[in-house]
Write a structure and sequence with these properties.
By secondary structure, this protein is mainly α. The chain contains 21 helices and no strands. The longest helix has 38 residues. The two termini are 24 Å apart. The relative contact order is 0.11.
Amino acid sequence: MAAGNGIFKSTMGYSLVIFLSRIFGLFREILSAQILGGGLVMSAWSSAFLLPNLFRRILGEGALGTALIPLISHTLEQEGEVSARRKFSTILIWLAFLLAAITVAVSVPALLIEPHVSVARWKLMLLVTPVVMPYCIFICLIGVVTSLLNSLRCFVLPALASLLLNVCLIAALAWGMTGAFRGNPAGFLRVLAIAVLISGVLEMLVLWILLKRQRMIPEFSKKTLLNFGAIHEIWHLALPGLIGMSALQVSVLCDRTIAMSIDNNAAAALTYSDRLIYLPIGIFAVAFGTVSLSVMSRTAAAGRLKSMLMMMFDSMRQLLFLTVPLGVYMLFFGRNLLEFLFLRGAFDETALNASAYALFWYAFGIPAFAATKVTVSGFYSRKEMKTPVRVSIFCIVLNVILSLSLMTSMKQGGIALATTITAYLNNLILLGLLRRELGRMPLKSTARLFFQTAGISLIAGFAARFVYLECCGIAGFDLLPKRFLPWFCGSCVFGMIFVVLSLLLGIREVKQVLKTLRRKFSR
């Protein structure tokens, strides 16, 4: 339990920084909704910006970054700092060459195809793609550098550096609010793309300073360039993950293409609902997954697999306790949240309805999306990359099939539901395989916690919804727009009932969360 508490404390500090980043990101999305709306302009921008982010998830913080953490952790443990820096330098140099080639390979076809496209949302997307695509180089290198810093137990400062993207985009959006680009959506999207590139340069400079502090500035020499042993080692570790992440991003691309083919609102609806769903996942799951992987990798390198397993399930239980009620809350109040945050300017009732519909089906999957970050750590920390990939590819194929099957009757809601179903299936298969490899695990107690938390959350949700509806009928509760006061009262009731019932049932995670929060706020 002591190891689990250590991860939890580190994670809470990291989560606070990520929370700040997500708040900036949420403010950015509020401005985007007001200026770009929920129709073809937002669909075009979100689809174009998706492309560099796909490669970030594959080559940056995705498979390559994930493989780098155990590689550097094991090298530091067994070979020392000099060897770790040399391996990192080789990987960074060759990755930069690869990213430059990818950027050209995506941008040139977009330039050639655009003049022959007549559908407005596709044409706008192709116009902005060559401008935003070079961000792929910066964000992937940033992801790899961040992974290295995480393996050195440096979590907070790299996370703070990620604020720069939101700061630059907020500045560009604020410029757009002046009306300087009225009637020129293509010009404004190009400005947003340039702001993205500036943020990449600034973030890379900050991380370079952190590398210097850690004595890990890359070596640029012929010897480093020709260090094919490091390339072979990272290739061996990352290849399965690259295949899996590539398949996953193909699935994401298929989902977005399917949504773009439905209507002007579907892709934007997925974007806005996705932002809200990944707000709690970004705050908690990414923090738990990042910290757990770093600590578990060092524990696995020392041969203490039982301790590693205890860390994993302590993290899993804490994560489920936080994300299950968040998922249930989204079921009851997701539309209110969308309305409060986005319903203004160019974001109209049509966009609200489309986004709320997708959000409802995504909400069921919040615990599964979050748990995956910890589940895969049980494999990655032992440098076992192939098993999660095989399972992932199976689930990805199933996801695409389900999305195509459900889109006709459910539109973007079908895409969200397919993603939710396959996320749960992915976790269950991985946990079953992990049990077969490592032996007995506390699966029953973890499942019991899941269903207990879900039951408590549903009771809290129905009570909160009742209070919300009652408050809507009380005179004076309509002083603030968008039924804010009834929603606020309902949200408070949800939180209080959930905490009280958790304490009455003796769920240990609630005491741990409250104790950590008291310690944070008492400082």
